[in-house]
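Feature request disguised as a bug report, sorry. It would help if multi-protein outputs had a clear separator. Right now it looks like this:
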Amino acid sequence: MTKLSVNVNKIALLRNQREVGVPSVLGLSVVALQAGAHGITVHPRPDARHIRPGDVEELSALLASTEWADREFNIEGNPLDFGGGHLMPILRRVKPTQATLVPDDPAQNTSDHGWDVVKHLERLKPIVAELKDLGCRVSLFLDPDPEMAKRAADTGADRIELYTESYAVAFEQGGDALKRSLEAFTATAEAAASVGLGVNAGHDLNLDNLPGFCAIPNVLEVSIGHALIADALAMGMADTVKVYLQACGVATGANSLS
């Protein structure tokens, strides 16, 4: 079974279009958790285009409560240049369950590449060590590259998160393109596992392509936002979370936390 963390950035993006607090990031996060989601993910950016500092604080308090103590809070972002001065104070203050480090620029519309671990190794090592001292599990956003996955262990990280846009594109193409993509992601997941790293994944995963990706061994968690929130407009948040859990391998009616 692969666990599901719901990225609520797009709820905040819609909310921010009006100053009336609707839709509620906190309220819909509760609905997702009640439906069985294993956690909530946010990617706070310096320009506050979607998730705002107040959202982070409210979600942190929610997930620290007794009712949701078995769920996880995952905060994504860049701890180096291009916004590192924004992210690290948040992580130090909130101490989320997991910190997913992503090499993005504030100007980017969305994350579009993984870390060059070799290039940034000496800068990442002390950051990873600090975050682990804070009690955070640390995951590094990576392209499908087995050698880079092995080198990620040198940072002291606990997991990698596979950047899955190329898989989503290959899924639409089908045939040999899909076969090669699955082989690359499988090899990367196996390489990570061989050096003791857990494997997460995210980006452009949806109800169509998710089951095939979750068949890759060692994938512990997927973080899904854009497609899931889009589906929730049609199906409702609770029902959407349930069908995504099924796509992750959680049997209908089963306790999704088992």
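(second protein starts here, but nothing in the output says so)
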Amino acid sequence: MVEKTTDLFDKLNSVQGTRELNNYIKSLSDDRITPTFAGYISYMVEERGLTRSEVISSSLIERTYGYQIMNGVKNAGRDKIIALCLAAHLTLEEIQRALEIAKEGILYPRDPRDSMIIFAVNNGYSVRKLNSLLTESGSDILN
């Protein structure tokens, strides 16, 4: 069974020495599968009853490259991750999780561009509509 992150923090904070730390780390490898962005987005697309082709088309990512990302052949950058997540209708929390899994920076509300992305996610914007908002404000579109 996979433990909640808060439970893991509690365990880690109670570790007293290197022996306990090594045991803690070993317990992670015993029952933990490291998620990938490709696995996460594929799962979320399926959960939403969407197809990969619908999501890739809506993300405005070139078709072949989109499939390579979703198959785990290519690693997506932050903007591509956001575009795919937005096209898959993920919530803000789910997008933040996707960015964490991909080891990309999460959306930060003090950053003006990220604030616009957060606004777009919370208001159900498409990638095309978000890019229009970003263009109007002089920000870079999702590339």
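Even a blank line would do. Unrelated, but nice: The radius of gyration is 18 Å.
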